[in-house]
Amino acid sequence: MNSQQRWTTEQIPDQSNRVFVVTGANSGLGLATTRALARKGANVILAVRDEAKGRRAVAEITAGQPDAQLEVRRLDLADLDSVRDFADGLRADHARLDVLINNAGVMAPPRTLSAQGHELQFAANHLGHFALTGLLLDQLSAGDNPRVVTVSSANHRQAKFFFDDLSGERKYSPMGYYNQSKLANAVFGWELHQRLTAAGSPVRSVLAHPGYTLTNLQTSSPVGMVKLLFGKILSPLAQTPDQGALPQLYAATAPDMEGGQFIGPDGMGELRGAPKRVELAPSAAEAATGRKLWDLSEELTAVKFAFPAAA
After folding, report:
1. How open is the CA angle 246-250-251, to the nearest 5 degrees?
2. Which residue numbers are catalytic?
3. 302 Cβ contact list (under 8 Å, min separation 6)
4. What is the mean pLDDT of residues 227-246?
5. Per the confidence metrics, is the pTM higher than 0.90?
6. CA distances from 186 to 114, 253, 260, 279 (A)
7. Strand duo 275-277 + 262-265: pairing
8. More confident residue, 271 or 140
9. Which regions of 49-196 does DSSP assign to beta strands (E)?
10. Where are the beta strands (DSSP E) in 54-193?
11. What is the residue-wise DSSP string for 11-44?
């Protein structure tokens, strides 16, 4: 990919008859992603925690594009029961799924526990998406040029795992645990690529990050200095959600995408710009870390991936 060609949504191939799931599709990057895919003929399932907000997003898109194929389904990624209900419903109504975009996230809230007692950011950003991907793998395997796009962050490069205090009970840092969840996204996306490849699966696992994009992620859950810094002080440096969604749209639709690739902005510090291939932190591709996180995630979610036998 030559980022100098300034890839835009106009270059997305026709997506007619293709089924996408976008988590967190009612606002920010998810809404921008859904809008761009719908414009290219995709059938997009908006996986949202608040169905009323999902319906408002659909109304906003269809006002300018009456023929958009959109469907709202409830999904609370922080609640593993909700993830199973969503997957069961989707399997009942859709024989196949072509692309899963693991986009939704929460950022730097006060310490909060999920329905199953896990730290909220690790639960919503990583465990929910891990479980969702595993539960939908059969549908993806039946898809056309199927992909899983997991959205991480440049912050994964400065993160570490708190395996001895995953819930933040002893010492909690909102940004430290946010960064951990983004590292978990990166490790999961890479490890999934390794396992899909070993199994000879047609599904490709790819990664993306949006650079610095101003969405309600920076203002809805952070508190104190984090909210002030990202929501106000640095906001003039940020790009719009339409711009920030380009890496994940490229990862989801570009014909030349290969499994295991990581797409981010091409500008200084990967803060903004056109999509290009960027580097994972070496720590995100460590085999031992990948196995450890995978085993832990299967244990915490009770979801085991059913990979096809290698050809």
Report:
1. 120
2. 178
3. 80
4. 71
5. yes
6. 21, 19, 10, 11
7. antiparallel
8. 140
9. 69-74, 99-102, 147-151
10. 69-74, 99-102, 147-151
11. GSPP-TT-EEEEETTTSHHHHHHHHHHHHTT-EE
